[in-house]
Fold each of these.
Amino acid sequence: MLVCELMGRVIARMCSGSKLPGLLDLSLSRPLVTVPLGVKLLKVTPKAVDLMLQQLGGALLRELTGRTRYRAWGIV
């Protein structure tokens, strides 16, 4: 519940046309989120998914693989 509340605060600052709420819903519904998965489901570019993950910051979604390629994020 705390994660949902924190993510709701981040979404409140975004404009209405942003795909960031879709990424947050995706991250809550799946244990791991990857860039190709975000591209496929949100219909945006890989760079857009990377930028949205950076906007969320490390406090909400953590990078789990420790790699520079084929990274995956999840809620810890």
Amino acid sequence: MSLKGVGARKRLSDIVRQAEQAAPLPKVLGPLSIVFMGIGAIIGAGIFVLTGTAAALYAGPAVILSFVMAGIACAFVGLCYAELAAMMPVSGSTYTYTYTSLGQLAAWLVGWNLILEYSIGGAAVAVGWSGYLDGTLGLIGIDLSPRFTSSTGTIVTLADGSRATAIANLPAVAIVVVLTLLLVGGTRESARVNNLMVALKLSVILAFIGVGVFYISTANWRPFLPPNDGTFGVFGWSGVLHGATVVFITYIGFDSVSNCAQEARNPQRDMPVGIIGALAISTVLYILVAGVLVGVVPYRELDVAAPVGLAVERMGLGWLALLIQLGALIGITTAILVLLYGQSRIFAAMAKDGLMPPLFGAIHPKLKTPWMSQILIGVVVATFAAATPIETLSELVGVGTLFSFVMVCAALIRLRRLEPELHRPFRVPGVPWVPLLGILSCLGLMVGLSPVTWMRFIVWMVIGLAVYFAYGRSRATARLAD
């Protein structure tokens, strides 16, 4: 096996030159759109789905601390993203940053794991969307058969009390298809739809917090940290850590913002504002919503498809229940939209470097979007959303994301040493300590992953290495030599 090219780096000047020579992407995104793009991705399944799962199964009321732990890790990493995105206003995000600092093989492994983050993450959020659609329709008297709203092979209970095997989660498939077509149609149009949906979503979340605080029973917060039951990761401090790894999927939106750099009007200013602003706003809202949720409903009852909807039902406010269900649908929709968007930009960057087939980098001559990549991604995400439970998907997303975050922190440290003279419109304070804290925080969260998740991750990495050496290495090395 030849190792030629595995450590080869791309210089920033070459990356910028290639971006300028490639088919142009229209610069249509301002700072507000970028912040809203981040909030759209971050605030989705986390508030409306995974908060309940993490509280009921792992952390109890201390799920609040799980969000704090995950948010702290993301704050360190987010600063690193802000510097690199402002310095490299091109598509590709973590993949591109790693290529300039750690080399070709490291960049491939990051790109390979970003498939877990964006594509599998999009599937996980689509499954959550399906749960809220079912709840919303139920409020107006429309009941969907669980055979068509659950993952393939799941045993479900029908309306007559009989048991059956689910065929596929069709609503999850439908939302992925619709958003894929929207993204193929153009970035400007997608951003406008996203901005509107995020504004509506924030209004609903604030309404839930403002009303829900009056229905909190402090008895539901006790014990705040349920004792561990003898199994690592099930309550106790290890449960808080495990809960943090589960809800970590809720924070991945801030790094998908970095994929907007090539389409931002003023990326040197707008990218740091977008990344840090979206992360800060979302973290505060997460903590507030988690506190209200576990205060209204006993934590052991929150392992349901729509936990926020359950909390509103307990309040006995019919009007708010429908509003929350609609807000959740809108909120989760924006998360899927941004994840699908981010994956297509990553694949387009990898295709330009020869690590992916050329069709992933094809830009539609009229629509100015990577349309082939977007459609293929939509097909894969829809397939996973139809057949896989949200718990399995969310843990896979967590491990892939954490690996990528470790790499981007390492990339910043190494790039500071390799090319200290580069102009950096935004500089992370306290280097190397801040990125090192980001690395340690992410590694700490990875410790909380289950052994099964680690096995899946190892298998995924082995497959990625096989694909790299069989297809990508020789083509990418040849591109570097051109």
Amino acid sequence: MPDTEAILAELARLSSADLPTRGGRTLAYVHDPGLPGLDDLATAAHAAFARVNALDMTVFPSVVQLENDVVSFAARLLGGDAATRGSFTSGGTESILLAVKAARDHARAVRGVTEPELVVPDTAHVAFRKAARYLGLRLVTVPTDPVSCTPDPADLAAALTDRTALVAVSAPSYAHGVLDPVAETAAAAAERGVWCHVDACVGGMVLPFLRRLGRDLPDFDLSVPGVCSLSVDLHKYGFADKGASVVLYRDAELRRHQYFASAEWPGYPVVNPTAQGSRSAGPLAAAWAVVRRLGEEGYTGLVATAVRATEEIAAGVGAVPGLRVVGSPVATLLCVASEEADPLHVADEMRARGWFVQPQLSFGAHRRNLHLTVTPATAPQVPALLADLAESVRAAAALPSPNPDPALAAAVAGLDADALSAEELAQVMASIGVDPEKGALPSRMAPLLALLDAAPLPLRERFLTEFVGLLFSGSGA
């Protein structure tokens, strides 16, 4: 039996190939406040409640107090009032799934909708597409302007029908960091009796503090008439550990449609506020502790630091030949277009220099680009980031196109996503340097991503599914 030190050493070895979660050089997936001691607090709080099962709050009443405190903080911050209710969830995807489920069931119960639809801009987070597939809603997407990256509110209003269960907008959108027309969309939804959801998973813990700093922003939260629900992640700019989000509802009646309850079995009576049954209270306790430690004053300071860094990066991007910021970002997310060098090569070059910037593929009128999530920890790194970005663009411009050979692209485009065989998939994978037997990643991701970009959307999704299936084979040592 391995001892404790050996097990921890093995974990350290496994994590040595991971990108750093602290230090401000990984500009996606992680959110680093750059505050000494905050991680230790979150870890201690998580450990204290790791074995508390939030499934039954009558057995563990501490869960009720912790969740009420966290939800109340989010509600006060985001335009809620005494009637506002909410739930703590595992992340933005679950918060969105629950809001869509509640809206679907509300439309069924109140308006008699039997073939529900979900209306979103084409820039809405993919979690809405996931919710539509899981929950049986027809997805209706509204194109966004390729310059502003926002939808025309008139187009969103025109997409609403008697079958619309929910319309969703972003504050801001993840891909481009821009603010959708929340007030106009909510007004159109209210006029038709349609549920309006605001996805503030990224911005919910940023935009309110920007206002405290004097920034003039359009209304976007539960204070907007017609907004029925809102999602906000505490594990993003709330700087809690992963597994921490909140979904808010205008009142208890709307939230009721989120719950699942059943007494139709011989075991204990079941009521699940969220999609999960048994769940550790560790993430909730960690989020509660971080929120208590920072408070509104602490968050205001962290947001000020992150926004200043974002503005410095945006200005620096504009000074690099061939780079530009896409749209008009309102907070801490940047989308960067690269005209002289392929963005996929730029991402690889940045990774070789110790940075992770997230490549985004083309979609509709939107071209390939790079996404940057800027946190307070990035602030002292801005000069180095901009220097390496300029150098990466120059290096990438000298490389051949990562796009697949035209013959390969044509062959891939002719494949049937539903009938794709294992042999065909293996051939395509091998052509871009992926070992189908091992599922190993190529040293540079640009050829793989360029092939995905050239493939029709159904094939993109099939390739992604099969590739991840290769990685998670369940055949570890």
